[in-house]
């Protein structure tokens, strides 16, 4: 689409073209993550923030890849062993290799996946690249985790997801961008309440539990000027997101310890830890 209108977000042409809303001068978590995964959909501001993070934690790149590998293993478990056929992936980030729909539809071509993200660049690339198996269904929606009712009532989400049947809600690497003032536990509770018994919650979260010598303010500083500040949380604080649901083995653990694949190569992480917890739980 060629844009010839103004810069008012209320301008109808502006609203139709999400690329217009991208600000390359403000780092965004999705693009920082893309850079750390060696992607190309990022700007100088994102790269600068990522490099500042690497200065504090030299194992950041490897940790991000370990985080991504956890997501892949967990999605495969949900599709292959748990028999989940619907995935609501919130805060998905810019499409890369081994996306949720690719892994799940490899197991079951009829799997349906709805992606949600609040970054316009994710929407632009997602709709261009997320071509799923024709037997299933894949959608990309621009919405914000901080407004769960908007996600749950979105027409495209309603079209793809059947809320009368079990589904997997994926919150991978997104809740540490929700501040305490924004009530992250309440947001997750509303999502949990909207899905039926037998549904799963796949969740991962950044922590400083494995880095006692790193000051919180030094670790989070690269995100201070981004669209979303980072809030690391402890094991107990992360465990609270699963309240009322039953964690599957091995529980809430460091992402590299969640059902590791002995046949897969695990990249050594400088410092030895991925600085993230991950877990999957089932709704009674």
UniProtKB/TrEMBL annotation:
Keyword set includes Methyltransferase: yes
Keywords associated with the record:
Methyltransferase, Transferase
Q: Which GO terms describe its molecular function?
A: methyltransferase activity
Looking at the Swiss-Prot or TrEMBL record, what is one Pfam family this protein matches?
Methyltransf_19
Q: Which InterPro entries match?
A: SAM-dependent_MTases_sf, SAM_dep_MeTrfase_SAV2177_type
Q: Does the keyword DNA-binding apply?
A: no
GO BP terms: methylation
Q: What is this protein called?
A: SAM-dependent methyltransferase
């Amino acid at each position: 689409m060629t844009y010839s209108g103004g810069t008012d977000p209320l301008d109808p042409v502006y609203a139709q073209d999400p690329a217009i809303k991208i600000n390359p001068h403000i780092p965004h978590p999705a693009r920082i993550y893309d850079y750390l995964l060696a992607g190309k959909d990022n700007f100088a501001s994102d790269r600068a923030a990522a490099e500042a993070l690497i200065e504090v934690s030299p194992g950041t790149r490897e940790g991000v890849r370990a985080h991504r590998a956890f997501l892949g293993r967990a999605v495969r478990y949900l599709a292959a062993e748990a028999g989940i056929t619907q995935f609501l992936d919130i805060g998905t980030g810019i499409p890369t290799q081994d996306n949720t729909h690719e892994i799940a539809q490899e197991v079951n071509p009829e799997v349906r996946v709805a992606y949600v993200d609040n970054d316009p660049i994710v929407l632009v690339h997602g709709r261009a690249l997320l071509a799923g198996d024709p037997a299933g269904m894949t959608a990309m929606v621009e919405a914000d985790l901080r407004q769960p009712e908007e996600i749950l009532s979105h027409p495209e989400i309603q079209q793809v997801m059947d809320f009368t049947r079990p589904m997997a809600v994926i919150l991978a690497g997104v809740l540490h961008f929700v501040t305490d003032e924004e009530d992250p536990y309440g947001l997750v509770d509303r999502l949990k309440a909207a899905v039926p018994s037998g549904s799963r919650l796949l969740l991962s979260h950044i922590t400083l539990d494995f880095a006692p010598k790193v000051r919180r303010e030094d670790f989070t500083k690269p995100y201070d000027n981004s669209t979303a500040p980072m809030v690391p949380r402890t094991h107990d604080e992360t465990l609270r997101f699963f309240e009322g649901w039953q964690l599957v083995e091995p529980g809430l653990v460091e992402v590299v310890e969640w059902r590791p694949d002995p046949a897969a190569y695990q990249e050594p992480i400088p410092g030895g830890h991925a600085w993230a917890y991950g877990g999957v739980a089932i709704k009674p």
